Design the sequence.
């Protein structure tokens, strides 16, 4: 019985032992599974972490590259913008340089003695007009130039005329190399002088030999004397021919001058066959004076004077000078052996000039005004005429006036008193 009980106990122990083993194995398997699951989870986490790191690095790298690309593009764009800005600045600078540049030109001009040329014709289209320039000559004994750029040859030689002006920030400088030539030896030049007046004939000679190399001779010394250097002097009224000759080897030159001598007495200008003019229109600027004594037959103090309105104009009875007081119109009368009536117009923009024409000479009004802006009218064509270009020609001894009206400004009038002398009657 004991043996059976012991066997039973042993069997039960062995059963429990097997169960423990199985449980242990199950537990071990469970633990192993858990460990495996844990390991897998950890591995997965590690993998995810690594993946995240790789992704993060890749993202960072891509971001860096994108940033670099963007930066480079930005730099390139900035450089382009800077370049564009630089270019614009350069263009602006160029434009500024263009505006501030100096225009300098040099030209050669030839003119004859006593002839006139308009230097304004030589200015470029972009330059200001001639009146805007300052004109000067290096030697006015060779060539004269007016404020309007009108050049007149005085004697044979060379000189320089300079003209400067500024327009829109650009300074214009013109240099004219002037050559003045004289008459051809085949020409016969007419010259008019007064008694005791001198004139240099050598200025009309167009050769390089000095004046003293020529032989100078007057055909009649009772009218005209001539020096060994070609300076003639009027002796008395009349005319003579002066001849200048040069002989050397095969070179033979000859110049002839017809010299007419008039009286230096101012009254000679009134000795004319032209009928006396006793009614005159006088244009005088406000506050300006006009001498009308050269019109009168006798001295001013020999007349009885009357003025209709002294608030408009006054007369100096001793000197024959009219003064403009205020704008308007009035009459001034002079009673004497010959009676005169002067209708006086006083204006703010009225002015007067005086010129003298001798013999066959003419006078170009371009010397005192811009002829392109004016119309011209002579009040005494029997004494002096004027053409549309402002060239005045003496017809008979006496006094005339040329009325010059500004075509763009009807309020501007220039009255030119012309005294004509030495016209043979």
Sequence:
């Amino acid at each position: 019985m004991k043996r059976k009980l012991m066997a039973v106990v042993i069997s039960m122990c062995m059963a429990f032992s097997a169960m423990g083993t199985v449980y242990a194995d199950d537990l071990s398997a469970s633990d192993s599974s858990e460990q495996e699951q844990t390991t897998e989870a950890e591995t997965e986490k590690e993998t995810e972490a690594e993946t995240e790191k790789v992704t993060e690095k890749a993202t960072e790298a891509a971001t860096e590259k994108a940033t670099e690309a963007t930066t480079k593009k930005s730099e390139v764009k900035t450089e382009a913008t800077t370049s564009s800005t630089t270019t614009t600045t350069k263009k602006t600078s160029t434009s500024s340089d263009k505006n501030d540049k100096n225009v300098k030109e040099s030209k050669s001009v030839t003119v004859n003695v006593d002839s006139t040329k308009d230097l304004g014709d030589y200015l470029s289209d972009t330059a200001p007009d001639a009146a805007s320039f300052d004109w000067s000559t290096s030697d006015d004994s060779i060539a004269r130039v007016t404020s309007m750029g009108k050049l007149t040859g005085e004697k044979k030689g060379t000189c320089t005329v300079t003209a400067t002006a500024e327009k829109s920030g650009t300074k214009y400088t013109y240099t004219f190399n002037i050559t003045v030539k004289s008459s051809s030896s085949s020409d016969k030049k007419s010259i008019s002088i007064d008694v005791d007046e001198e004139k240099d004939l050598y200025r009309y000679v167009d050769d390089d030999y000095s004046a003293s190399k020529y032989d100078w001779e007057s055909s009649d010394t009772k009218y005209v004397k001539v020096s060994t250097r070609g300076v003639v002097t009027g002796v008395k009224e009349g005319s003579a021919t002066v001849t200048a000759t040069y002989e050397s080897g095969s070179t033979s030159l000859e110049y002839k001058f017809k010299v007419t001598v008039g009286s230096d007495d101012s009254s000679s200008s009134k000795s004319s066959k032209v009928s006396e003019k006793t009614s005159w229109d006088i244009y005088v600027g406000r506050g300006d004076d006009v001498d009308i004594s050269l019109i009168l037959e006798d001295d001013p103090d020999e007349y009885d004077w009357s003025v209709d309105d002294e608030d408009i104009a006054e007369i100096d009875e001793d000197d024959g000078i009219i003064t403009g007081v205020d704008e308007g119109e009035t009459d001034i009368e002079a009673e004497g052996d010959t009676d005169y009536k002067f209708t006086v117009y006083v204006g703010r923009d009225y002015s007067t000039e005086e010129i003298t024409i001798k013999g066959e000479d003419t006078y170009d009004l371009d010397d005192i005004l811009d002829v392109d802006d004016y119309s011209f009218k002579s009040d005494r064509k029997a004494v002096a005429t004027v053409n549309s270009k402002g060239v005045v020609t003496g017809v008979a001894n006496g006094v005339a006036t040329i009325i010059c009206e500004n075509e763009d400004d009807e309020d501007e009038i220039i009255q030119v008193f012309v005294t004509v002398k030495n016209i043979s009657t």
